[in-house]
Amino acid sequence: MCPAHTHTTKVHPDDPQPRTSRQESFRQLFNFSNLALYAGAGLSIFDLIFDVAMVYEYFKNEKPQFARATLISIGLNLALQVAVTLIQNKKRKRRVKIREVFFVLTFVKPGIDAWRVVTKRKHHALNLFSPMMEYLLGKGIELVFECIPSTIIQVLAFVEGQHSAVVILSLCSSILTAAFISASMSIEKDIDKNSRRFSPYFYGFVNLESKVQSAVVCMLVLVLSACQLSSKAFAMALGASESATVLAAYLLVDMGFALMFKLARGDFLYWMRIEEISMRFLVSSAMRLCNKILIDFTGMIQMRHPFEYGGLYFSTVLLTTPLVSLYFGSRYLAYTEDEEVKATLKYVFSSNQIYGGLGCLAAVQLFSFSLFLVIIPPKFRTTFLSAQTGSQYACANFFRTTTDHGRVDIFTLHPSLSLPIKQEVKAWLNESLAAWIAEKPSWFNDQVKTSIFDDYVDQPEMLKQIRGEAGLEVEEA
Question: Which residue ranges does the record annotate as region Disordered (predicted)?
Answer without folding.
Answer: 1-21
